[in-house]
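User: Assemble these into one structure.

Assistant: Restating your components, then the assembled model:
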Amino acid sequence: MMSKWIPLWLHKLGSPPTFYRFAGTLRPWMLALALLTGAIALYGGLVMAPADYQQGDAYRIIFIHVPSAWMSLFIYGVMGFAAFLALVWRIKLAEVVAMESAPIGAAFTFITLVTGSLWGKPMWGTWWTWDARLTSELVLLFLYLGVIGLYHAFEDRRQGARAAAFLALIGIINVPIVHFSVNWWNTLHQGSTIRLLGPSTIAPGMLWPLLTMMLATKFYYLASLFGRVRTDLLDLESGKDWVRTIATGSTHQ
Amino acid sequence: MNPPGLTTACAAMLRRDLTLAWRRRGDIAMPVLYALIVTMLFPFALGPEDTLLQRIAGGVVLVTVLLAMLLALDAMFSSDIEDGSLEQLVLAPQPLALMLAMKILAHWLTTALPLIVIAPLLAGMLHLPTAVMPVLVLALLLSTPMLSLLGAILVALTAGTRRSGMLLALMLLPLCVPVVIFAAGAVAASQQGLPWLTPIAWLGAALVLLLVLAPLACAAALRIALDA
C-alpha cells in the first residue's frame, strides 16, 4: 500500500549499500557547491554589501552568524525527524542520520554562539549577556551535547542511537518551551528582520549574500552528513558482504 | 490465576519502594545534608550582608534543591536494575507507565519532600522575608515533582549504560531551565510585592501535563534502554 505513493527508489535509498553509493556520488558535488556558494556569499557580504548606517562594518559578521543560527535549528529539526523515523520504523539509516547530524548541529550552534559574542563585544559592550535568544541557543547546545553524550554512553551502538533519538524527540518539545520561558524572563536581542510572510526589513544588498550563505551552509551540511554517514555505515555493517567487497578493494567506490 | 487489580498493584509498588527507602534511612538524609551545606557556603563566599543574601535567597534555595535532587536521581532505578526487578516490572501484566509513576512518587516522597520541609529553614538562613516563604514552598511543591518526572525519563534512558551522573546532569539541564525560571520568577515577584500567581499557574499547568505524559515517556524510554 505504502509503495503506491512512495517511489521505489526512495525505499531502496534506505538500504545501507545503496545509500553508501548514493552519498558517495553526491558528496563531492555538495562540497563543491558549498565552496562555490560560500565564496560568492562571502564576497557579496564582505565586499559588495553596503555598510550599516548604525553598526558600520561590524554588522558583517551576520553573514556567518545568522546562517549558522538557522542551521543550528534546521539540523535539530532534521535530527528530530530522523529520530522519529528511527524510533517508529526502526530504520537503521535514520538512526545513523540522526546521530551523525548531532555533531554538525552542535558545531553550527557553537559557531553561532562564538560569532554572536564577537559581535556583542563592540555592539553591546559585553561578550555575553543573559538575553533570551542567547540563552535558548546555549540551551540548544546542551541539548545537542546531551544527545551526543547519551549515544556514546551505550556499549551497543544501535541501542545508544535509539535512546539518543528518544532524547532528541524530548528536546524538540523542549526547544519551544525554553524559548517561550526565556522570552518571558528577559529579552534584549533585536527582533527578526527577515520574514517569510510580509516584507523583510533588511536592505536587499545585504539580503542576497545572507540567503546565498544559507544555501552554502545547507550544502555543507549535506556534504558533511554524507561523509559521516558513509563512515558510520561501513563501521555498523562491517560484517556484511557489501562492506567486505569495498574493504578488499574490488569494483565500486 | 488472575493478576492483582491495578489499585492493589500500585499500592504494593508504593509500599515496597517506601519500605526499601525506610530501611536505608541514611540515604534520605543525604540530599538534605547536602542542601544545608551548599546553602551554608553561600554567605561565606558572598559575604554576610543581609540585603545581598535576601535578594538571592529564593534562587539559591531553588538551585540547591535542584542539585540535591539531581544527586539522588541516579539511585531511582539503580538497585532495581542490579537485582533484576526492573525487568520483572517490564514483564508484569500491569501497565508499566503506572508502575513507574508509583516509583517516581515514592522517589519524590523520599527525596524531594524532606528538602521542601527544610526549605524554609534554608531560606531563613539567607534572610528571606517570612511573607515570601509560602510562595517559595508552593513553588517547590509544584516544581520538584516536575524535576522528579523529567529526571525519571532520563534515568530510564540511561538504564542500560555505565554509571554516568555527569551525563544525567547534562541531559537534565536543558529540561529544567523553564522550571527554574518560573519557580524563581514566582518567588522574585512575591518578594517585590508583585502578583506571583501567573508563574505559579504556569508551573501548575506544566505539572499536570507532565503527570500524564512523563510516566508514558518514562516507560517508553525504559523499554528502549533495556531491550538489546
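Chain A touches chain B at residues 87, 135, 139-140, 142-143, 145-146, 149-150, 153-156, 159-160, 162-163, 166-167, 170-171, 174, 177-178, 180-182, 184-185 (CB under 8 Å).
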